[in-house]
Amino acid sequence: NAGVTQTPKFQVLKTGQSMTLQCAQDMNHNSMYWYRQDPGMGLRLIYYSASEGTTDKGEVPNGYNVSRLNKREFSLRLESAAPSQTSVYFCASRRAGSSTEAFFGQGTRLTVV
Amino acid sequence: GQQVMQIPQYQHVQEGEDFTTYCNSSTTLSNIQWYKQRPGGHPVFLIQLVKSGEVKKQKRLTFQFGEAKKNSSLHITATQTTDVGTYFCAGPTGANNLFFGTGTRLTVIP
């Protein structure tokens, strides 16, 4: 059982380049999330999807777009990368409801130069 | 918007000493969750508290949810090197989102 799988694990981009971070879960979870983690800032919610076909903004959505392709997959796109988007990105999923635990992927370490 | 703050941001302890991290929310939470992230790893769920004033224990870890359901604490008794990592609290603001605290990074000195 793979859980939550993120690709790639590492990426270096030049300013202005675009890329998509992929996330897939095999636990049949309804809710999926994208977070970014920066030193001293904790985990900040970028976007989330409560179910297939729906997405909502989190705390820091500017500069990002998401797609909930199907129940399994939730991708995060950077259209024009900026150095401020250098961070570690985590995808997470959980069953529907406010009292269920979240399962995280291994993370993507992104550097924008 | 909701803010979930944790203190301290960093804590260094000698092995065997106790450790406590505190989590404070600007709004009342329906429940609070705690996660641990080992260095270089991803957050892993530890426990969830739901009731006002609830206290739960996991071996040397004691978790507490405040009476007003706006704060929580995690206490580790007699720390070990395996306790090293960053501890996060997290709370929902609705049925589907999940906001994390700023985290407390624990270093244990052997």
Protein model, in words:
- The complex is a heterodimer of chains A (113) and B (110).
- By secondary structure, chain A is an all-beta fold.
- Helices cover 0% and strands 50% of the residues of chain A.
- Chain A is built from no helices and 11 strands.
- In chain A, the strands form 2 sheets. In chain A, strands 2, 4, 5, 6, 9, 10 and 11 form a 7-stranded mixed beta sheet that branches.
- Chain A starts with a strand and ends with a strand.
- Chain B is mainly β and 110 residues long.
- Helices cover 0% and strands 53% of the residues of chain B.
- Chain B contains no helices and 11 strands.
- Chain B starts with a strand and ends with a strand.
- Chain A binds chain B through residues 31, 33, 35, 40-45, 48, 50, 56, 58-59, 90, 92, 94, 96-99, 101-107, and chain B through 1, 6, 9, 30-31, 33, 35, 41-45, 48, 50, 88, 90, 92, 94-103.
Structure characteristics:
heterodimer, A: seven-stranded mixed beta sheet, four-stranded antiparallel beta sheet, 11 strands, B: 110 residues, mainly beta, six-stranded mixed beta sheet
What topology emerges from the helices and strands here?
The complex is a heterodimer of chains A (113) and B (110).
Chain A: E1 4-7, E2 10-13, E3 19-25, E4 31-38, E5 42-49, E6 56-57, E7 65-68, E8 74-78, E9 87-94, E10 103-104, E11 108-112
Parallel strand pairs in A: 2-11
Antiparallel strand pairs in A: 1-3, 3-8, 4-5, 4-9, 5-6, 7-8, 9-10, 9-11
Chain B: E1 4-7, E2 10-14, E3 19-25, E4 32-37, E5 44-49, E6 55-58, E7 61-65, E8 71-76, E9 85-91, E10 99-100, E11 104-109
